[in-house]
TrEMBL record:
Residues 183-346 form the Hflx-type G domain. The lineage of its organism: Bacteria, Bacillati, Bacillota, Erysipelotrichia, Erysipelotrichales. InterPro entries: G_HFLX_dom (IPR030394), GTP-bd (IPR006073), GTP-bd_M (IPR032305), GTPase_HflX (IPR016496), GTPase_HflX_N (IPR025121), GTPase_HflX_N_sf (IPR042108), P-loop_NTPase (IPR027417). CDD domains: HflX. Keywords: Cytoplasm, GTP-binding, Magnesium, Metal-binding, Nucleotide-binding. GTP binds at residues 189-196, 238-241, 304-307, 324-326. Monomer. Associates with the 50S ribosomal subunit. Mg(2+) binds at residues 196, 219. Belongs to the TRAFAC class OBG-HflX-like GTPase superfamily. HflX GTPase family. This is GTPase HflX. One of its GO terms (cellular component) is cytoplasm. NCBIfam families: GTP_HflX. Coiled coil: none annotated. The keyword Metal-binding applies.
């Protein structure tokens, strides 16, 4: 399939990104048409003259708009151009569709797709009623749309319920993890910035590699790995990447996946330094985080891909490190920074708690990271990692320190 791309901005970044999205959808790129618009035409998005220009170029390509079109615009443009007309949101949904592997990801994508479709059908219906003068006459096309709408609405309700079940299970898992008090670090950042590569670099277990690739949205599901930072145990979570103008249906649908980010103790914000407009990528990521309600979690800016030597012009935001996840450069500094933020003043304590002191044992188990636990004949042996201050009332159980 080949496509003509229609943009309303001369910013080369938008063109580049739309092309990458097409590539990820296996769509060949034909002409690129740009019209700078003062005002968007509600009926056809672009103006009459531009439509004529596209018509002249058109052979058998489809047309892809860089912005999200309204249902009416899609309908009118399809009629005028007599070919498939679609938009950037649809491309993103197609990519997610193809990449979704787990049941949860599949459901999330399905929900986003149905949410995208539903108002489109309704819009189409309104459009048809207008055409028929609103006389109350219901043509067969309109009936079909109403039928489709009901089917989709029903499917949407079913998928939402199914997803809620999965989310519940995930919450149980997370609660278990939380009780264990092991700090969670989440990787966040623009798509293709190198989050999965960094997870693979930091996780020593070669069996547990996650998928990394030079394409948009390589990762859709969340993976969590156990890693050690300066001998401290932590969990590192990799998740879906963000993109500028991320369709809000997607954010909504992926909310449960992104809950992991919400509950993290520390965020590593991975930035691709080889990308000229890196500042925009940072802003996009921070905006998405804000929309998820993540605002006060400590964050380290991880300026990645320094091996490509394009980082000289970067003005870093603190706290930060410069690394190459792929060639393992700067990782010591990253570990220093993480341990400074997460494990300052942390120490390992070995305690022996008599069985009669069940309450104290319960408190420590719930509030500290437990590295080892052994039920001995007369007492419980506990090896924990904590700040001295936090367990000051329990220091008399210490075996040695
Ligand atoms: N040169 C160079 N390339 C890197 C580095 N880190 C990652 N990459 C490449 O960047 C591409 C994207 O890497 P991923 O780790 O898949 O990126 P991601 O952030 O997980 O992307 P999404 O899952 O799509 O959000 C891959 O081709 C990696 O090999 C690096 O330090 N240097
Ligand atoms: Mg990834």
């Amino acid at each position: 399939m080949k496509a003509i791309l229609v943009l309303t901005s001369t910013n080369p970044f938008f063109e580049e990104e739309l092309k990458s999205l097409c590539e990820a959808c296996h769509i060949e790129i034909g002409d690129v048409v740009i019209q700078k618009l003062e005002k968007i035409n509600p009926a056809t998005y672009i103006g009459k003259g531009k439509i004529e220009e596209i018509k002249l170029k058109l052979q058998d390509e489809m047309i892809i708009f860089d912005d999200e079109l309204t249902p009416l615009q899609v309908k009118n443009l399809t009629d005028l151009l007599e070919t498939e007309v679609t938009d950037r949101t649809d491309l993103i949904l197609r990519i997610f569709d193809e990449r979704a592997k787990t049941k949860e990801a599949k459901l999330q994508v399905e929900i986003a797709r149905d949410q995208y479709l539903l108002p489109r059908l309704v819009g189409m219906q309104e459009h048809m009623s207008h055409q028929q003068g609103g006389s109350g006459f219901r043509g067969s096309g309109e009936k079909q749309i109403e039928l489709d709408r009901r089917i989709i609405a029903r499917k949407l309700a079913r998928s939402r319920k199914e997803l809620a079940e999965i989310v519940k299970q995930r919450q149980v898992q997370r609660r278990r993890r939380k009780n264990n008090q092991i700090p969670v670090i989440a990787l966040v950042g623009y798509t293709n910035s190198g989050k999965s590569t960094l997870l693979n670099t930091l996780c020593p277990d070669k069996q547990k590699k996650v998928f990394e690739k030079d394409m948009l949205f390589a990762t859709l599901e969340t993976s969590t790995r156990h890693i050690k930072i300066k001998n401290h145990d932590c969990l590192l979570t990799d998740t879906v990447g963000f993109i500028e103008r991320l369709p809000h249906h997607l954010i909504q649908a992926f909310r449960s996946t992104l809950e992991e980010v919400k509950e993290a103790n520390l965020l590593l914000h991975v930035v691709d330094t080889s990308f000229e407009d890196y500042q925009m990528q940072i802003e996009t990521t921070n905006e998405v985080l804000k929309s998820l309600g993540v605002e006060n979690t400590p964050m380290i800016y991880v300026y990645n891909k320094i091996d490509l030597n394009k980082y000289a012009y970067i003005q870093p935001q603190s706290p930060y490190v410069f690394i190459s996840a792929k060639y393992k450069r700067g990782l010591d500094l990253l570990e220093d920074e993480i341990s400074h933020l997460l494990f300052k003043d942390y120490e390992v304590f070995e305690l022996s708690i008599p069985y009669s002191q069940g309450e104290d044992f319960k408190y420590l188990q719930q509030h500290c990271y437990v590295k080892e636990i052994e039920y001995l004949e007369k007492s419980i042996y506990l090896k924990i990692e904590a700040r001295k201050q936090e367990i000051k009332n329990y220091l008399h159980y210490c075996l040695k320190h």
